[in-house]
Task: inverse folding
């Protein structure tokens, strides 16, 4: 981890605000050499790395077609380079929970390892009914998934570099305007799971980075209680003022700049956006990273505006 990221996380007055930009595979497929040429003008924002890029390279859930994961969930993808969704759920009834065994194969921590894993196993409608009715099968299912995840974190910590660093996790806990379940229900059933997993990272001397899309404002203090040191939160779903109130000076935010704005705005709108969030959520002592992800619906003009803004405002407090 770069010194700026560590210093920002620990509120040690980083030399620069940490910045970064990433692209869906479909974005590379669309823009190809033109995107590489653009990014070459902003080496501080995007490091190309060594070797030539295969613009059509796609793997995992981004490959068009159907894929089955280690749990038996069937993922379907209708467009190469975009992400998949689960369309066939291996535990469609509560009776199926009683015969469910966790996979023998270790798959680490894919995006959606706890809350989304429950929904992928049961199906969204069924897991929502489970959380509403709270049958014994709900806790049974949670325990099976948690036990598997604890094995994954033990494997991870055994094989990773023992030098203190950020261990990354991703699980989308929110919808556009709220959590999928109530904060109290989340605290009852899911907070103990995240706390148990992240406690093992801290016991090994590491920090925790958590990506979580959607509206999660109500449980940000709970995530900090669980051991999250850097939270990768979306600005549109949570609101800038809410993030300032909940996070500033309390937990480092790797802010996901407004992906829902990028396809529809002007370059000036993007500059104004990055300026505002840097001014309100940032501070000289740290606590802020600026992150942007671009899909294929974002124009090259706006991708360049994002790069310019990140390059410009990384030194806002210098």
Result:
């Amino acid at each position: 981890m770069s010194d700026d990221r560590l210093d920002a996380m620990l509120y040690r007055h980083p030399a620069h605000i940490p910045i970064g930009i990433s692209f869906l595979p479909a974005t590379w497929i669309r823009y190809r050499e033109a995107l590489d040429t653009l990014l070459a003008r902003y080496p501080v924002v995007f490091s190309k790395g060594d070797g030539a890029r295969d613009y059509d390279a796609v793997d995992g859930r981004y490959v068009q077609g159907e894929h089955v994961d280690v749990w038996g969930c069937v993922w379907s993808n209708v467009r190469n380079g975009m992400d998949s969704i689960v369309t066939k759920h291996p535990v469609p009834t509560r009776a199926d929970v009683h015969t469910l065994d966790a996979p023998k194969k270790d798959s680490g921590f894919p995006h959606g390892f706890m809350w989304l894993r429950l929904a992928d196993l049961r199906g969204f409608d069924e897991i929502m009914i489970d959380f509403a009715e709270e049958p014994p099968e709900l806790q049974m299912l949670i325990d099976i998934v948690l036990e598997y995840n604890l094995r994954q974190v033990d494997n991870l910590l055994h094989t990773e570099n023992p030098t203190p660093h950020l261990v990354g996790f991703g699980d989308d806990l929110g919808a556009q305007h709220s959590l999928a379940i109530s904060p109290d229900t989340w605290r009852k059933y899911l907070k103990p799971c995240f706390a148990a997993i992240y406690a093992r990272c801290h016991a090994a001397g590491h920090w925790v980075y958590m990506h979580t899309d959607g509206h999660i404002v109500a449980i940000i203090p709970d995530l900090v209680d669980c051991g999250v040191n850097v939270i990768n939160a979306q600005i549109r779903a949570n609101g800038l003022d809410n993030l300032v109130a909940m996070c500033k000076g309390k937990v480092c935010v790797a802010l996901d700049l407004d992906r829902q704005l990028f396809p529809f705005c002007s370059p000036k709108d993007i500059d104004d956006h990055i300026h505002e969030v840097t001014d309100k959520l940032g501070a000289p002592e740290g606590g802020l990273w600026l992150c942007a992800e671009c899909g294929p619906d974002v124009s090259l003009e706006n991708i360049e505006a994002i790069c310019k803004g990140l390059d410009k405002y990384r030194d806002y407090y210098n």
Observations:
- The domain at 3-57+127-313 is CATH 3.20.20.210 (TIM Barrel).
- The chain has one domain: 3-57+127-313.
- The mean pLDDT is 97.
- Strands lie at 19-23, 65-68, 74-77, 85-88, 166-170, 207-211, 230-232, 252-256, 288-294.
